[in-house]
Design brief:
By secondary structure, the chain is α/β, with parallel strands linked by helices. The chain has a single domain, classed as Rossmann fold (3-Layer(aba) Sandwich). The protein is 39% helix and 19% strand. A 5-stranded parallel sheet has the order 3-2-1-4-5, sandwiched between helices. The longest helix has 22 residues. The chain is globular. The mean pLDDT is 94. The protein binds NADP nicotinamide-adenine-dinucleotide phosphate.
């Protein structure tokens, strides 16, 4: 068994873990004995609430602010992740859940170039480069889950 696999604590990184599906993922993993490093974008109070709920389960979660569409911020985020892993007593994480996201409720006629760039940066470019930057820190046998949407397969009128 390699030094990486030998870690006893399992750690997940979840983007957008402060609300919705990401929050449920952090809490569900805590109940299964997995610690988390998760991100939020704008709502620090919701993130703090998740950290407290995980602590009540007897596990540890660490929250960092990140705009997952701002690729230039990813190197600093990786440094924060390394600090977080050290706090959790490990060098590597086991699961990456690319979940952070938003939605654009505009018709084709109304959508601006900036709107489309923002969606693309968070849902595609950010997922690609965050995964790339975190690869050196993933444990042997680690797993990456990308949350998509039915809207990748169908659309609404307009
Ligand atoms: N809910 C659904 O029915 C559904 C269906 C299909 C796909 N999805 C996908 O599932 C994922 C989660 O959806 P959800 O409904 O659980 O979302 P949600 O409840 O709106 O929560 C979104 C999470 O992502 C964070 N976030 C938003 N914009 C961000 C950004 N630019 N950078 C970093 N973090 C950001 C939010 O942080 P703050 O609160 O701090 O801003 C929050 O933690 C999304 O990718 C979404 O496209 C959801």
């Amino acid at each position: 068994m390699s030094e990486q696999n030998a870690q006893t604590v399992k750690v997940a990184i979840i983007t957008g873990g402060s609300r919705g599906l990401g929050r449920s993922t952090v809490l569900s993993l805590a109940r299964r004995g997995v610690d988390s490093i998760f991100t939020y974008h704008s709502n620090a109070a919701e993130a703090k609430n998740v950290v407290d709920l995980v602590a009540a389960e007897g596990r540890t979660a660490i929250a960092y602010q990140l705009d997952s569409g701002e690729i230039a911020a990813f190197d600093d985020f990786v440094c924060q992740v390394k600090d977080g892993l050290a706090t959790l007593g490990v060098q590597y994480f086991d699961y990456l859940v690319n979940n952070a996201g938003t939605s654009l409720h505009k018709s084709i006629a109304e959508t601006t170039e900036a709107d489309l760039d923002a969606i693309y940066n968070v849902h595609f470019k950010g997922v690609f480069f965050l995964t790339q930057k975190l690869l050196p820190l993933i444990n042997d046998g680690g797993r990456i889950v990308n949350i998509s949407s039915g809207l990748a397969r169908f659309s609404f009128s307009g």
